[in-house]
Amino acid sequence: MDVAQLKKVALFENLLPEQLRLVAQIVDELTVKPSTRIFADGDVADRFYFIVEGKVRISKQVPGMGEEALTILEPGEYFGEMALIEERPRSADAISNTTCVLGSIAKSRFDDLLFMNKDLAYDLLWTFVRVLSSRLRETNEKMRAFLVMAGKF
User: Fold this and answer.
1) DSSP state of 137
2) How far apart (Å, rounded) are the C-alpha atoms in residues 147 and 152?
3) CA of 34: how far to CAs of 24, 56, 60, 73, 83, in Å?
4) Which residues are CB-contacts of 20 (< 8 A; sequence separation ≥ 6)?
5) In sequence order, what are the beta bridge partners of 29?
């Protein structure tokens, strides 16, 4: 994957050119058709993904209701990053809404890169923290709205 494509991804947009070149060396690129399950809730979390082209739906299966879409992600956004932080199974499904071009980085390669490049590690992990915090706030607001509608709040 080239550096110009990486620069369009929110996670990498503030990296220096040399840092982008290092990241580019460990990216696997894949193309998936619409409605492809990229990963499922409960799968082993061994890599994360970012969207170069297309849209990806993050969802959960709700007993008695079926699939509940949590969010739709677009080019420049990333998902599955919790795999890089904790050793736990996936917590949701990721399904392509359209034909997608994705970048993917294996946890083992990402860990090696960060171990060898402490400044890069700091920059990337701080970005993860900000995005995870933002996503948690959004989830809290959705939960609050749901509880208000259900008369439980």
Assistant:
1) H
2) 5
3) 25, 9, 18, 14, 23
4) 3, 6, 7, 12
5) 103
Give this prediction's pTM.
0.84
The ranges assigned to domains in the chain are 3-149
**pLDDT above 80: residue 150:** no
Look up residue 92 and give its DSSP letter.
Answer: S
Name residues whose C-beta falls within 8 Å of residue 51's C-beta, 6 or more positions apart in sequence.
9, 73, 74, 75, 76, 77, 78, 79, 100, 101, 102
The correct CATH number of 3-149 out of 2.60.120.10, 2.40.50.140, 3.50.50.60, 2.40.128.10 is 2.60.120.10
What band does 46 get if pLDDT is binned at 50, 70 and 90? very high
User: How far is C-alpha 120 from the geometric centre of its chain's CA atoms?
Assistant: 18
How confident is the model at residue 153, as a pLDDT?
59
C-alpha gyration radius of the chain? 16
Distance from C-alpha of 54 to C-alpha of 52, rounded to nearest angstrom: 7
- pLDDT of residue 14 exceeding 80: yes
